[in-house]
Amino acid sequence: MAKYFGTNGVRGRFDELTPELTLRLSQAIGGYFKGGKIVVARDCRLTGEALRSAVVAGLSSVGCETIDLGMVSSPTAEYITRRLAADGCIIISASHNPPEWNALKVVDGKGIAVSREKGEDIEKLIEKPGLVRWDKIGKIRIYETGTAEHIEAIKKLAAADKIAKRKPKIVIDCGNGAASVIAPRLLKELGCEIISLNSHPDGRFPGRPSEPTEANVKELIALVKSSGADAGVAWDGDGDRVIFVDEKGAYVIGDKVYALSIIWKAAGKKLKYDVVTTVATSKAVEDVAARYGAKVRYTAIGAPYLCEEIAKKSAAMGGEEVGGVIWPELSMAKDGFMTVAKLAEALCEKPLSKWLEEVPEYFNVKLKIEADEKSKKEIVERVLAHAKNKKLDCVTIDGVRINLKDSWVICRPSGTEPYVRIFAEAKNAGEAKRLAEEYQRIALGK
Ligand code: MG
């Protein structure tokens, strides 16, 4: 079991992820990438600069060439890693966590985030850092055009001329996070009319918490309504995830952002490849994919698993329930800016509320059962035995997901907390509740 690496890198408060630990981990990461060319980026958190210094020192001391992008969004760093054919990338960002947190997200040369399992291999190198001789120390290169290059690449993939003509009015809420360094510029260059909120970088996140939940973006919702904008958008702290607000002020959850992205990608034609998503994503995604002739391939929860699956076998796109969408034509990373560029393009055709009519409506209910490690296992086995007994269609990649006709339910042990979560989704609220309660009973063996 990895000591420091979680499902998405190494995460902690400043007294846990200290500059000392960051230095040692970065040496180990440099060793893992065998002294290659590593891209380094950070978001706007106050501890970012101190940790960046430790990362750069660690990498160069084991002979890696470091390409320092400075303060950029995570999708920018991942795009540049692929563009420069670098061997890997370290992003200093705790995504949506509160401001006192930070993290090291490690991405390999293919653009795939390093999972907990691979993190274990990295940790084995901590004790033998492999310092190079003084004259073999790695070069440190400052690279200032990352954001500009990322914007150019997105503009090529969105119908910029169409957008410039229609000039959709979009309220952007960057949450004072890394989106602030790219989103206003991108949308302006695309020709959108923008109204910005919390769109200057500030590592204290004074405007709102960095997770763009409905409760956290109330100001955005109000501004969309009062300004008569076509839509509102809000990113998480590092800009890989995004949620929408339609022109009437309705909050659009992450599942629907992904379903809409599939519709926009298909553009009325059949999709050539499958669609990848996690086992916790709404059936709306499967329904929409089926409309364009695409099958859904499910993965465990966590972005690294999505990327790995897309890398294994081509996919039209990947996405997760919290508004992260991977556009493989651009990069292997969730890219909240590419998603918004596609939104801007779609708004030229019809209002967002009209687009949403194309996404099937589902209702969900979440329950949890307290359980220690041993009973977590027993609970999941009990649900699996029930599903097998009843010959139900089940997916066992991460907990047990049971697909029923117009509904589904998942029973999944939490990786970090003493709970097993039961999550049910159905065509109406009553059925979702009934299903969640039924599986809670089955899980408890009642
Ligand atoms: Mg994020």
Describe the structure.
The structure is a single chain. The protein is globular, with a radius of gyration of 22 Å. It has a 7-stranded mixed β-sheet with strand order 1-2-6-5-3-4-7, sandwiched between helices. Strands 9-8-10-11-12 form a 5-stranded mixed β-sheet, sandwiched between helices. Strand 11 (242-245) and strand 12 (251-252) form a beta hairpin. With 446 residues, the chain is an alpha/beta fold. The protein has helices spanning 19-32, 48-61, 74-83, 116-123, 146-157, 160-166, 183-190, 218-227, 254-266, 283-291, 303-312, 336-347, 352-356, 373-389, 429-444, and strands spanning 5-6, 9-13, 37-42, 65-71, 88-92, 101-108, 140-142, 169-173, 193-197, 231-235, 242-245, 251-252, 274-278, 296-299, 315-319, 325-326, 363-370, 393-395, 400-403, 408-413, 419-426. It folds into 3 domains: 5-144, 3-Layer(aba) Sandwich (Alpha-D-Glucose-1,6-Bisphosphate, Chain A, domain 3); 156-356, Alpha-D-Glucose-1,6-Bisphosphate, subunit A, domain 3 (Alpha-D-Glucose-1,6-Bisphosphate, Chain A, domain 3, 3-Layer(aba) Sandwich), CATH 3.40.120; 363-444, 2-Layer Sandwich (TATA-Binding Protein). Helix content is 37%, strand content 23%. It has 15 helices and 21 strands. Bound molecules: magnesium ion. Magnesium ion binds at residues 95-96, 236, 238, 240-241.
Provide a quick synopsis of the model:
This protein folds into three domains: 5-144, 3-Layer(aba) Sandwich (Alpha-D-Glucose-1,6-Bisphosphate, Chain A, domain 3); 156-356, Alpha-D-Glucose-1,6-Bisphosphate, Chain A, domain 3; 363-444, TATA-Binding Protein, CATH 3.30.310.50.
